[in-house]
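Morning F.,

Quick status update on the modeling queue. The single chain you submitted on Monday has been processed. Sequence for confirmation:
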Amino acid sequence: MKTLYKSLLVIAIAALTLPVSAQKKKKIAENLSDRQFWLQQMDKMVRPVLYNLAKDSLRIAMPQVTSIHIDNKEHRIKVQYVEVLGRVLSGIAPWLQLEDGDAKEIALRKQYREWVLQGLKNSLDSNAKDFMNYDIGGQQLVDASYVALALIRAPWIWEHLDAKNQSLMMKSIVTTRKFKPVFSNWLLFSAMNEAFLAKFGYSWDPMRVDYALQQMEQWYVGDGMYKDGSTYAFDYYNSYVIHPYLAKIADIIGAKVKDYNGMFEKIKKRNERYAIIQERLINTDGTYPATGRSIVYRGGAFHHLADMAYRKALPKQLSPEQVRCALTAVIRKTLESPTTYKNGWLTIGLYGSQPDLGDFYNNQGSPYICTNIFLPLGLPASDPFWSNPPVKWSAQRIWAGEDFPNDHSADLR
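Structure tokens below.
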């Protein structure tokens, strides 16, 4: 009886203790500010990549996972290293550029800056285990452009690379000119690489930029959206690539030549319209339509909305705090599943591990494009995006029964 009594007592104590422990953890999480929560999630996501690259152990530590629909497993694994590098850096670059934050955030940024600089040096060192070739295949035209975008977004990185590694990086990006872009959003990858060269004072090819800009103009269909090639697809490529790339290319090339002033003004207005559409796609709980290819890019589906907030280019219909709250909900929803990570690395899926959602080109590096939802971390904590009190976003107001302004399409051709 004594043994039975002790057993029942242990069970009773456990039953009382576990909920309290869970409540404490939940309370700690709830006490985080939105910025602290974003930093926490960013750190969790990118630390395995940049820590290991800095230690010259990325190839050892990074799983060689590919989509179950993969077209060429061996090749996709070979290119995953430049892929993960570009995607991670492009998302955290604005935060690396920032000089702001409390002591804890400043210390975290200092650590990441060290890892990034050492990691880039390892990636460019032909004697390092993590040396990265940029001439393995056409996919690297894509991946080089994300590295280029990262360096454009964070000139601090470029300025703190020594001359030797700057030259090696430039040559690596130029190497991808040998690959013919797919007749699609890929034209913008070529153009971004040229924009990188233009920004940092190298010889650049105006024709590659002009071809991409002129063709995207031909592919504009109205209401802030472009076709991705010769046919329209209802997916998120307007956000994954098209709008953020056009906006950044316009910034850089617009400072070099005046030939595209009229086009760039239209691009700005289209940026604004598509940001409005993106915000309305975010449901009351942070979910959004799971449609189209590359859906495993999770929060990368809102690359454009995050970029507009970071660049302080939001249209008047969208307040910064409204966008912050909507994007926070997306981050929570897309990362809350217990199967989002496996041994610290992102799985292929939208809500946790969902292998069948993968596309034929997805490898372990692919889902890390979702780091681009963290772009507003490049804004200081005092910016209204972070400092203004939380508010409901459009879906929350509408589905709470509040009166709300109606929506109208905009041609903008």
